[in-house]
Design goal:
The protein has 620 residues and is α/β, with parallel strands linked by helices. It is 44% helix and 20% strand. It is built from 19 helices and 20 strands. It is globular and about 110 Å long.
Length: 620
């Protein structure tokens, strides 16, 4: 398999902080590789260097065979003055220019221009490509194509950027957190889309199901070095555990040696022989190795929550609308002690509005919300928090509490609590502005948990957090002595944490589903398949339209014209059905791809048969 990208001895640091050094690896054609590392380790910097957007301190990056490259940033850079349509089609390749011209021309009435545009599409074989583009735009549920990019939300802009790079079909694709801001349905579509195509991908993502199902190799950055695992996320976990175990065995050996060397060092006289100096050097080398222990289970703490009484939270016939948009309609629920509920649904279906009503930030327009006297909310908001950038990390948490009370009655200092959440003591006195985006989100999480809530509300906690932090949070929530209400598109997180789901089905309707996400997905897929089968069976059959025969046509031509009219009617009927299915958003990935290809064939057949029908009709 041909090598597409080569990274040699790459190094990058910011001030005194070394992100990585002497990193080398290759990526071969059609490999799908993920990069895993904790927040602040330099993942985004490495992607940016490979994409050519940021310089390295040392080393080289080589892209072979004039391969094309596209880079999806965490925060996409789009032209705000463009419409969605102009931005999506703004790439410079000839096929996209032709399709863009065709899409513009067919909005008008100039038949000559339309005919010329169709001929250009034929010349480049653009019909299938156009169908594929429309499939991507449909599945990503982009807003009105004529809407200015400047009016879009952050999530909508991310989807526009994703559509823009996918339709170019580059040789090499770099993705930085591609699932952020996508709902579960779109994530699963993207998962299938990438899995079933011959794409070469290098990406960073915290979505572990996405990693497991898409990637065939994983690079782990740890302590400024890179470890390579040829397999998916499940394989990575197994081999990483082996690596850590081996490393700890070596460390234990070094510690035993160190104890002997420390005894020797304490007995050594001041005068040093050459031999003793060599042994002293060896002592410091052993000491360094002995401190290199890696803990597989680093964070296993339980914070004491505020005492919870019998009455938790009751919502009675709650309704809320934003103008004509229904968010909640007559929702009633009584929360029980210690339950953990996941909230899923499409973007804009009312999930964040629901959380604001629960916490009292919004008042329901109808119904009531009653909160127990002992309830203490901890609300982790999607938009995060604005820290004072000049404040030291340790001072951020000390403003909340000097000590944190644990579930067993013990207490730990704020500094120790920060250390549990992967802020080493050496980082406590650095200002907040030196933290990466993911580290700031982790610090925000620490501030929420330090308040000892007994009812945790988490709105998209998995965005921008690294996998290790998610493991920490999951361990904490598993033993949390209170209620949890979480909105997330992370299916792995939902499967590990929740007891049941609130499914936001749209139009203000919420369904309480018993079980985790995987159980719900199986149920939903079966239901959709059954309904689709019923709808196909109930579709009425259309009669063939009949046309009076022209005496100017030969008998054979008359028969051909009559047949064409029927064939075109059937094709148009099938085109309508296929187009409706493609826009439904409920088709499995394999069926979606198959129907997309069929749609392109139908369009071509309609065009050919219509041209022939016009030719015969002109003989009237």
């Amino acid at each position: 398999m041909a090598t597409l990208l080569q990274v040699e001895k790459l190094a990058r640091s910011y001030g005194e902080k070394i992100l990585f050094e002497d990193i080398s690896f290759v990526i071969n054609q059609y490999q799908k590789i993920a990069l895993i590392a904790r927040n602040g380790a330099g993942k985004t910097s490495l992607l940016s260097i490979i994409a050519g957007n940021e310089p390295s301190d040392e080393g080289t990056v080589t892209l072979f065979n004039q391969a094309s490259m596209q880079y999806l940033r965490q925060e996409p850079e789009l032209s705000l003055h463009n419409t969605v349509f102009e931005e999506v089609y703004s790439a410079s390749n000839e096929i996209q220019k032709t399709i863009l011209n065709y899409e513009r021309v067919i909005q008008g009435q100039d038949k000559k221009e339309i005919q010329h545009a169709m001929e250009q599409m034929d010349a480049i074989q653009g019909w299938e490509y156009e169908t594929r583009i429309k499939q991507i735009l449909t599945q990503l549920k982009l807003p009105d194509l004529e809407q200015p990019v400047s009016e879009l939300s952050g999530g909508q802009r991310k989807r526009v950027a994703l559509a823009k790079i996918l339709i170019t079909e580059p040789d090499f694709l770099i993705l930085d957190e591609p699932t952020n801001h996508l709902d579960v349905e779109m994530i699963e579509w993207l998962e299938e889309y990438i899995s079933q195509r011959n794409l070469t991908i290098f990406m960073v993502t915290h979505d572990r199901y996405f990693l497991d199902r898409v990637c065939d190799e994983i690079l782990e950055m740890e302590n400024a070095a890179v470890y390579r695992y040829k397999g998916n996320y499940s394989y990575f976990l197994e081999k990483q555990a082996e690596r850590i175990g081996n490393q700890n065995k070596e460390t234990e050996k070094a510690r035993n040696l160190l104890r002997k060397e420390q005894e020797w060092m304490s007995r050594m006289p001041k005068a040093r022989t050459t031999k003793s100096k060599a042994r002293i050097d060896s002592y410091y080398e052993i000491k360094e190795r002995s401190e290199n222990t890696v803990h597989e289970s680093r964070f296993n703490i339980h914070i004491a929550g505020t005492r919870m009484g019998k009455k938790i939270l009751e919502l009675n016939d709650v309704s809320f609308n934003w103008n004509d948009l229904k968010m909640l309609q007559g929702f009633t629920y009584t929360f029980k002690r210690f339950e953990k509920i996941g909230i899923i649904g499409r973007n804009g279906s009312g999930k964040s509005t629901f959380l604001d009503i629960v916490t009292g930030k919004l008042k329901p327009q109808k119904g009531s919300v009653q909160t127990g006297e002992t309830i203490s909310f901890g609300y982790y908001k999607q938009e995060g928090i604005n820290f004072n950038n000049d404040t030291k990390v340790i001072d951020v948490v000390r403003e909340i509490a000097e000590v944190v009370k644990l579930g067993n009655g013990d207490t730990i200092s704020a500094a120790a609590f920060l250390n549990y959440f992967m802020f080493p003591y050496s980082s406590h006195h650095q200002p907040v502005y030196k933290l990466s985006g993911g580290e700031k989100r982790r610090l925000y999480l620490v501030t929420v948990l330090m308040n000892s809530p007994n009812f945790l509300i988490l709105d998209e906690p998995t965005n921008d957090l690294d996998i290790l932090t998610l493991n920490v949070l999951e361990e904490y929530l598993a033993s949390f002595n209170g209620c949890v209400l979480v909105v997330t598109h992370d299916r792995y997180f939902l499967d590990k944490i929740v007891d049941h789901l609130f499914v936001f089905e749209g139009d203000g309707l919420i369904k309480d589903f018993p079980g985790n996400y995987t159980i719900y997905k199986d149920y939903h897929d079966r239901k959709v398949k059954e309904e689709s089968s019923k709808n196909r069976a109930l579709q009425p059959k259309k009669e063939k339209p009949k046309q009076a025969l022209s005496p100017k046509l030969s008998f054979r031509e008359q028969r051909e014209l009559e047949d064409l009219e029927g064939e075109i009617a059937l094709l148009e009927s099938r085109r309508t059905a296929v187009e409706a299915a493609l826009h439904s958003g409920i088709l499995p990935a394999e069926e979606l791809i198959s129907m997309s290809e069929e749609f392109g064939v139908i369009l071509k057949e309609i065009e050919v048969k219509t041209d022939r029908w016009i030719g015969l009709s002109e003989k009237f």
